[in-house]
Each structure stands twice: as C-alpha cells, then as structure tokens.
C-alpha cells in the first residue's frame, strides 16, 4: 500500500529556506515515508494527545502524522 504525503503550507514555506543538499535529503525521506510511514529511526512523539511521529534529517526534524 502506498501512502500520500501532504505538506502544510507553512512546511512548504520552511522548505524554501533549507539548503539544497538538505532539501534533497528531505525529498528522499518523504518518498520513503510514502512507502513505509514507520521506517527504522522514527520516534513516536510523546505527550497526552500526541499522534505524531518524528524523523531526524541531520540538524532538522520532520514532524508528521499517519492516517491509516
């Protein structure tokens, strides 16, 4: 099953300020998430009402939610 990755508008704005090399890595990770939203190395966010996940990409963090 393939997932659809949707970006919020503020995430798109944020990506415009990211260096080109990091942007390529983010794009690769987004493609991986479309195939497997829980790859090795992701962490479930902690908190009372948290439904999100975190993926590290160098100094950056990709925060996302999964809608099965």
Low-pLDDT residue spans: none
- Strand-pairing-aware structural class: alpha+beta
Order of helices and strands: HHEEE
Task: Characterize the main sheet.
Answer: 3 strands, antiparallel
The domain count comes to 1
How would you explain this protein's 3D organization?
With 68 residues, this protein is α+β, with helices and mostly antiparallel strands. The chain has one domain (9-65): RelE-like (YaeB-like fold, 2-Layer Sandwich). Helices cover 35% and strands 21% of the residues. The protein contains 2 helices and 3 strands. It has helices spanning 9-16, 20-35, and strands spanning 43-44, 52-57, 60-65. A hairpin with a 7-residue loop joins strand 1 (43-44) and strand 2. The longest helix is centred in the middle third of the chain and has 16 residues, at 20-35. The mean pLDDT is 92.
Task: Provide a concise account of the structure shown.
The protein is α+β, with helices and mostly antiparallel strands and 68 residues long. It has helices at residues 9-16, 20-35, and strands at residues 43-44, 52-57, 60-65.
């Amino acid at each position: 099953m393939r997932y659809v990755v949707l970006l919020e508008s503020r995430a798109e704005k944020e990506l415009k300020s990211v260096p080109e090399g990091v942007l390529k890595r983010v794009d690769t990770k987004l493609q991986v998430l479309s195939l497997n939203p829980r790859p090795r190395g992701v962490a479930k966010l902690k908190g009372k009402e948290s439904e999100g996940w975190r993926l590290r990409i160098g100094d950056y963090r990709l925060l996302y939610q999964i809608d099965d």
